[in-house]
Amino acid sequence: MRKIVYGLDEVKIKIQNLKGQSINMSINRGRKKIENITATIKDVYPSVFTISTQDQKVQTFSYFDVMCGNVVFQ
Hints:
Layout lengths: L7 H11 L3 E9 L2 E12 L3 E6 L4 E5 H6 L2 E3 L1
Antiparallel strand pairs: 1-2, 1-5, 2-3, 3-4
């Protein structure tokens, strides 16, 4: 279990404010696989948010991923 840094409401507000902006992200994929990408937050939903990478792939993450540190905005 990972340390929770932010509360759920704080994470949602932070991501909502970053919507439409190009950001650098570090994603922990597990088993020592860290992926650094540049993406744009595309949509924000009540339970998840979607990003669009530079090669036009759409990925979905939950707010819990940010709370636990699996997804870090740089």
